[in-house]
TrEMBL record:
PANTHER family attached to this UniProt entry: MANNOSYLTRANSFERASE YKCB-RELATED, UNDECAPRENYL PHOSPHATE-ALPHA-4-AMINO-4-DEOXY-L-ARABINOSE ARABINOSYL TRANSFERASE
Glycosyltransferase RgtA/B/C/D-like domain: residues covered: 79-232
Species, as recorded: Luteipulveratus mongoliensis
Domain (Putative mannosyltransferase YkcA/B-like C-terminal): residue spans on this chain: 523-606
Domain of life: Bacteria
One MF annotation (Gene Ontology) recorded for this entry: pentosyltransferase activity
Protein name per Swiss-Prot or TrEMBL: Uncharacterized protein
């Protein structure tokens, strides 16, 4: 890599560099696979909302293509289903079980760790690469989301791959790599919509700034990459928009059944403005939102801090140190390009998460984990290679002290969690600084290695402990959070909702359906034997019975499908038999008198009798008053 080899003061290139590279890859692969696959099936169905859609996709190719919540394609999930395509195929191949649901994310996580290692190693050597890969592997939110079935694992891998392809394009001076980066960014859009393209301005700016090609040629290449991004994302929007609505599911989290509205509204600008759902429809309902105060300190506050922020202070110090050391280098310097890539990612995406006024969940920050790891790894590699310069060692010592202080601050927020760990962090940090001070004078390899090891222990002890806590305990429900509950936060691992009856044990209990209830559902000839308001509980019932369940109103119960008239027709012609009397906890549509779910429930309550199947109450839609069906 041109420009990188001029970093001064290395310990020397080992004669067995290939063997060391292979050993580093083996270590990181073993570590990430162990973390991602350990106790994986304990998560049962994880986020049942997506597990139910993966189940549906394994039974129906139409449901698979459109990301439907049920095999008969009534309503889609609230995302473009790129991640569900992978999960659905996994379930088709490996069967309907927890391992098949989560294995793709575990593999993606391991691939992301190795990719970050490869990128950083190419810039600053194996030591920096291992530091980066290790940091990513033990980041609590990464450990959580790389073993959970939300689309964030795929998003994170694609964002990392787009950085790799862009740096490759700059180094090779070849447009095809930049076009590939554009295609990867467009595919990331299919994983999580506008969040997937947040790196686009960073990639474009980096290429314009660093590429050695003529300015006109750079713009031409960027135009081609932009076209690739639009093509990679736009084909699916066109497919959904051009498919007649009767041949596809209703697009969830929209009012007009448009995938464009979903991309630009609920999953787009609505997240920035806080207006994901129109106030006239939502009323007083809270649409499953976690809205900590937005501002520059959000990433370092509350529950979010314990997910991602452990090494952010150290990474920033090391990043600034690296920029200072490379400030006199040519515009095309590739080492500085890495610093700008990782740092730009952290600033732009982290700044967006900090300032957005809409729905924010702590697990979103997994999209920052490669940036923090990459910036930290590049900085660590620079310190390692410039160990003869006392100013650099001083910067490294500052990074250790700042990072250790922040780790202690985070650990103090969890009083009952390994209280002795704070002292281990402090002791290792002080010892690392003393070892660096000694190395500044004796220049011995031994003192340098000891300082590096102690620094890594000091900075990784906290997140590693949180990650160990995370993988030992099951994660179920729609909003995963890594680590023990922080002071002022709450433990989303605990069961969130009460059990409504003995026949169907409520959602986080993994859709336990009693044999009598299952037999009754299996015997029903209806297309949807059961309808439930709220897609999460509907998905759990569907997973427990292996029969299609109609999720009235989609995830939140606010989707205008089916309308009360459509539901009456479904009940009249026998397409749906029972309505579960206990709506899902996220079904806030019942709090909005203007929602179709509210109107449906009101009609059923007034017109249809309650039938009990193994202590679980349902409205029997086959016995509704005839005159009420024609109102």
């Amino acid at each position: 890599m041109t420009g990188v080899s001029t970093v001064l003061g290395t310990f020397g290139e080992p004669s067995n560099a290939r063997q060391r590279y292979a050993a580093a890859v083996s270590f990181l692969l073993l570590l990430s696979v162990s973390i991602n696959f350990y106790n994986l099936s304990a998560n049962r169905w994880g986020n049942a909302f997506y597990s139910g859609a993966a189940q549906a996709g394994s039974q129906s190719w139409r449901a698979w293509l459109f990301g439907s919540s049920d095999p008969h394609s009534a309503i889609s999930v609230d995302k473009i289903p790129a991640a569900l395509w992978i999960d659905g195929l996994s379930v088709r191949v490996f069967g309907e079980n927890s391992f098949a649901m989560f294995m793709p994310q575990a593999v993606m996580g391991a691939a992301c760790v190795l990719l970050v290692f490869a990128i950083v190693t190419r810039g600053v050597g194996i030591v920096g690469g291992v530091a980066a890969g290790l940091t990513l592997a033990i980041t609590p939110v990464a450990a959580e989301m790389f073993r959970f079935n939300n689309p964030d694992a795929l998003l994170t891998l694609l964002m990392t791959a787009s950085i790799w392809a862009t740096l490759r394009a700059i180094e090779r001076e070849q447009a095809r790599w930049l076009i590939f980066a554009g295609a990867l960014t467009g595919t990331a859009f299919l994983a999580k919509m506008l969040q997937g393209v947040m790196l686009a301005p960073i990639l474009a700016g980096l290429y314009l700034l660093v590429s050695p090609l003529a300015l006109r040629q750079r713009f031409v290449h960027l135009a081609a990459a932009g076209a690739a991004m639009v093509a990679a994302s736009g084909w699916y929007l066109l497919l959904v928009e051009l498919t007649p609505s009767r041949h596809r599911p209703f697009v969830s989290s929209t009012l007009d059944n448009s995938i464009v509205s979903l991309a630009l509204g609920y999953n787009g600008l609505g997240r920035l403005t806080g207006e994901e759902i129109p106030s006239w429809l939502a009323g007083d309902a809270e649409v499953g939102a976690v809205r900590p105060d937005n501002g520059p300190t959000r990433l370092m506050s509350g529950e979010i801090a314990s997910q991602i922020s452990w090494l952010i202070p150290s990474a920033i110090v090391l990043g600034l140190l690296g920029l200072a050391l490379t400030s006199r280098r040519p515009r095309t310097d590739l080492l500085r390009a890495q610093l700008l890539a990782w740092g730009g990612w952290l600033v732009v995406v982290g700044g967006t998460f900090s300032m957005m006024k809409g729905i924010v969940h702590a697990y979103y920050t997994v999209a920052l984990a490669p940036a923090v790891a990459g910036l930290f790894g590049v900085g660590a590699g620079i310190v390692w290679r410039n160990h003869r310069r006392r100013a650099v060692l001083a910067g490294g010592a500052l990074a250790v002290l700042v990072g250790a202080a922040w780790s202690v601050a985070l650990l103090r927020r969890v009083h009952s969690f390994h209280p002795q760990l704070k002292y281990v962090v402090v002791a290792c940090a002080v010892a690392a600084v003393l070892a660096l001070a000694r190395h500044a004078y004796d220049r011995a390899r031994t003192s340098g290695v000891i300082a590096m090891v102690l620094a890594l222990v000091a900075l990784s002890a906290g997140p590693a402990a949180f990650t160990a806590y995370t993988i030992k305990r099951p994660t179920q429900g729609p909003i995963p959070v890594a680590g023990p509950p922080m002071d002022g936060g709450f433990n989303r691992r605990a069961p969130m909702w009460p059990r409504p009856g003995h026949g169907f044990h409520g959602p986080v209990e993994a859709a336990v359906v009693s044999p009598p209830l299952r037999r009754a559902v299996e015997a029903s000839p209806a297309r949807w034997p059961v309808a439930i308001i709220g897609a999460t509980r509907a998905a759990l019932f569907q997973l427990g019975t292996d029969r299609a369940v109609l999720p009235i109103g989609g995830y939140s119960g606010l989707d205008p499908y089916p309308t009360v008239r459509q539901f009456q027709e479904m009940a009249s012609d026998g397409r749906v038999r029972w309505l579960y009397t206990s709506p899902g906890p996220a079904a806030v549509g019942l709090k909005s008198p203007r929602s179709q779910a509210y109107l449906i429930y009101a009609w059923v309550q007034s017109s249809c009798p309650v039938a009990t199947i193994d202590t679980t109450p349902f409205f029997d839609l086959s016995r509704c008053r005839a005159e009420s069906l024609h109102r």
